[in-house]
Amino acid sequence: xxxxxxxxxxxxxxxxxxxxxxxxxxxxxxxxxxxxxxxxxxxxxxxxxxxxxxxxxxxxxxxxxxxxxxxxxxxxxxxxxxxxxxxxxxxxxxxxxxxxxxxxxxxxxxxxxxxxxxxxxxxxxxxxxxxxxxxxxxxxxxxxxxxxxxxxxxx
Length: 155
Description:
By secondary structure, the chain is of the alpha+beta class.
C-alpha cells in the first residue's frame, strides 16, 4: 500500500480563494525527487468560506498551520472527506443543506462513500480540467449527482 501525505493550501487568484488539494507520495525505497507542485495536484476548487473547511479539518483531526495557510494530514479518510466537502459545498446555497453536508461528511458511516466520491472527483478533474483547461467547472455534474443522491438538491 502506498502511503501519502496530503496537504491543502490556499491560492488567491482573480479575487477568488481556491483550496488546492495535493497528495505527496512517500516511499521508503526511493528518495522523493524534484517534482513540480502541479504533478501532485489532485483538485483545485473555489472556496466561499475558508473557515468552514478549517472547521471540518479540525473536527477530522488534521494539522492546521498557526497562520492557517495550510491543512495537512496523513489520513486518507480525512483528506477524502475534506475534498468531497469542498467540491460539493461550493454549489450549495441554503444553510440547511450546508449543515446537512457537514453532518454527512463528519458521519462515521461516510468513509467508503467519501473514498469513492473523492476518487471520482480527482479522476474527472485530472482528465478534464488539465486536458481542456476548464478548471473545476468539470466537477459541477458529479457534484450535482452527489447532491441528488444524498438529498441536497432539487430533483
